[in-house]
Each structure stands twice: as C-alpha cells, then as structure tokens.
Specification:
This protein is an alpha/beta fold. It has a four-stranded mixed β-sheet, covered by helices on one side. Helix 3 packs parallel to helix 4. 38% of the residues lie in helices and 15% in strands. The radius of gyration is 18 Å and the shape is globular.
Length: 155
Amino acid sequence: KSRKIPTIALTSLGTGKLGVIDKREELRFEELKSVGINFEELSNFPNDILLSEFKSKDGIPMMKRGVIFTAEQSKAKILSEIFRRIKYQPKNIVFIDDTLTHLLDLEKLCDDLDISYQGFHYIASILRPLPFINEKKEKERMNKLLQEYKWRPVL
C-alpha cells in the first residue's frame, strides 16, 4: 500500500443472487473487511465495470471496488476483457491462485500480451486437514437454515 503498487483481486466467485443471498459480491466484501482487506484502497481503477455480455447462470462478471469477479468463467478471459475496456496493460503481473489451470491460463495470456508474469500456486488449503464434522450439530444447522433461512455457526 505504501509503495502504491496497483493491486486487484481476481476471483471465480459468482455474482448476484443465490438462494437467500442477494448479492454474492457484497458477501465477499464483508468477508474481506472482516480480515482487514480492502482492495478498493489498493486498486487504481476507480470505476466499476459490468461485463453483461458474459452473463451466465453464475451471474455477470464484473470489476467492483478493486475485485474482479469472473462468475465462474475463465480468469484469463475476463481479466483480458477488463484490461481491454479500461485500456490498460500492466508491465508485470504477480498472481497467486490455488488452481493450477488458472495459473497456466494467466501465464499464456501474459505471454500473448507481452506482460512479465510470476505465478504462485497456493497449496496451503490442500494441505490443511479436513475438519471433524459433528453430524448432530450439522443436522441442527441444516434444520435452522431450512426453517429460518439463517446459517448458525458451529459452537
């Protein structure tokens, strides 16, 4: 932040309504805020962009408040379209992702656009042990969700 390096997030997350969630993108902003992350402060792209022509069952890809939501579409394709729309081509991209195909797709895009690229495969989520699931508590949570549309945290 202090070095003023433009930083954006790139997520496959869908947008818009899903069940009782009105806007999935707003839920993501709340999650980021809860851990002290605000890409709006880090991005140098002040305007939101909707890519309505790429609408799918998972929503409309968009760039909003420094986060690009691909709505489950190719990260490279959506990032390329965002760059085209804002007439921007960075000199370097550093990309961290937990999915190898996203890393390879973005590497190809950067090669095609003559952008220096460094990709890092984040594997900590793969290495984390699976949590113990208490079947009784999960049934209680599911019943509450079905009856009251509220998800109760596990206690």
